[in-house]
Give the backbone structure.
Amino acid sequence: MAVRSHIPFNTAFEDAVRATRYLTEIGSNATLKAEFLQLFNRSYKIGYELPFQSNSFWEDARTWAEITPSSGLISWDVLGDARNLEIYTQDPRETRLATSVQFYTDKTGISVSADLPTVWVSWTPLISKFNTTAWVTATAYVVGDVRTVSSLECYRCIVAHTSGTFSTDLAASKWVLMPVLEVLHEFVIRHMHGTWLLEQGQTQTGMTLQNTAREELLEIHRAELRRNRESPKP
């Protein structure tokens, strides 16, 4: 599997807006900023879902979090719309002592042994919807809230709580990082720019940018599929 770093949300968002030459304006125009956020999320969704046509996901789309089940149950709203679940006693990226946990799912959530106070869960989100709203202290957050921290990274709340210090809340596994996949960075810049031009009436240029972005991303996906097929099986 290819190892790719992620792009902080705010970096990716500003890069995409910069291509439209409106980066300065969004600092003082909340309506325009909200419009660009919608365009960003639309383009990101298109790129993120591109592998779905091959019944696959991007290699680096997995999310990890330490979760405390409630009487052996992890409700679906904690993970959101998740696929490819794996559950361990410890973080297997950090220790070989981690063992796989048996679980089963139903409409209420994911059930594990009630004897496990915490588990490490890995899953593939179906989509990430980013938000430019800033995290603030002394605020009640509910599962599913999305906030940007220190004008940089985007996080999703996975445990309802009243915020204190973010680093403490994060260490207590109340938030999970929502990274922008590096493989989608350039795609979103070009595709969002094309969408913006289309909405401004520049049809030919906008469609060309969108189509070029998609074709280049599709080729990256094909290469990823070939690499996975050729990789030796463990």
In short: The longest helix spans residues 203-230.
